[in-house]
Design goal:
There is one protein chain. This protein has helices spanning 3-13, 22-30, 69-82, 95-103, 137-147, 155-162, 212-226, 244-251, and strands at residues 41-46, 49-57, 61-66, 87-91, 106-108, 115-120, 132-133, 172-177, 180-190, 195-203, 231-234, 255-265. It is of the alpha+beta class and 268 residues long. The protein folds into two domains: 3-111 and 261-265, Gcn5-related N-acetyltransferase (GNAT) (Aminopeptidase, 3-Layer(aba) Sandwich); 117-259, Gcn5-related N-acetyltransferase (GNAT) (Aminopeptidase, 3-Layer(aba) Sandwich). A hairpin with a 2-residue loop joins strand 1 and strand 2 (49-57). The longest helix has 15 residues, at 212-226. The structure holds coenzyme A. Residues 147-148, 183, 200-203, 208-214, 236, 244-245, 247-248, 251 line the site of coenzyme A.
Amino acid sequence: MSLREMQELTSRLWFPGARWHVGDLAWGLRQHTGRDHEWPTKIWRENGEVVAWGWAELPGHLNLQAVDEHWAGQVLDWFAEITEPESVVVSSAEPHLIGAVEARGFVQEEGPFFLQLVRNLDDLPEPAAACHPVTDVAGRVRAHREAFYPSRVTEESYRNVQATAPYRTELDVVADVDGQTAAYCLAWLDDARRAVLIEPVGTVPDHRGRGLARDVCLAALRTARDLGAEVATVSPRGDDAWPIPARLYRSMGFTPIARTVHYGVARG
Ligand SMILES: CC(C)(COP(=O)(O)OP(=O)(O)OC[C@H]1O[C@@H](n2cnc3c(N)ncnc32)[C@H](O)[C@@H]1OP(=O)(O)O)[C@@H](O)C(=O)NCCC(=O)NCCS
């Protein structure tokens, strides 16, 4: 599996409504260890150039990206060969993927979904709290595990994330309370697209509601802007079952541009 090759296509195809950013792939494929056997991936090339990738999350979920409907169809055919398909997710702003998924008989499903929120970086307020790049890896992992309890992120998996392009320590920002990591924001910069992605953000339960998540996000975005970013995206849940992260990002001036569309298999 070549994450780099997947990222090459993802960077080339990126636009603000795209489902995937290079940082999503780095975080998504590296945040846990020992899952490669559950997560088969495949890359398709034409004339030497990557034109599609598929990432199955067994038993039956598919993530994909492709330059057009034809190549998306190739990914869907591979998926059906390796497992019993159950679900596929695409962005509402990627009609070629919607076309391929619907052509193979998948049907749209209601339920949890993610928003694609966007913000330009012209006018970023200063964070109120002191924020700094991560130094205490154990504390940073502990904060993530508390914020996302129960979490499968470990110090080992987090070190893998840190070793994965385009990770940069200065975009992995924390705020401390009493010397302990209380909130963090990991941001990923795609230099070629000048686009920064926030993924993920967390505040430990005891320190929520004090503006710390907003502060670490603002600090990370300001650094990203200094490094050349012009636009930021983030993908919180959009349904009513998990509304707080979207409120956080809207309070920072992010606005919706697209959402995920979830497909399942027609039954009966
Ligand atoms: C989402 C999360 C990071 C917010 O952290 P936080 O430090 O409590 O957030 P802040 O105090 O910075 O809040 C900033 C804004 O978010 C919104 N917000 C935060 N918590 C809220 C709540 N409980 N109810 C309503 N709005 C809320 C508000 O708009 C708030 O601004 P305001 O205080 O001026 O009204 C935290 O709840 C968390 O870690 N959740 C679990 C992990 C997660 O879901 N992460 C995000 C997905 S990547």
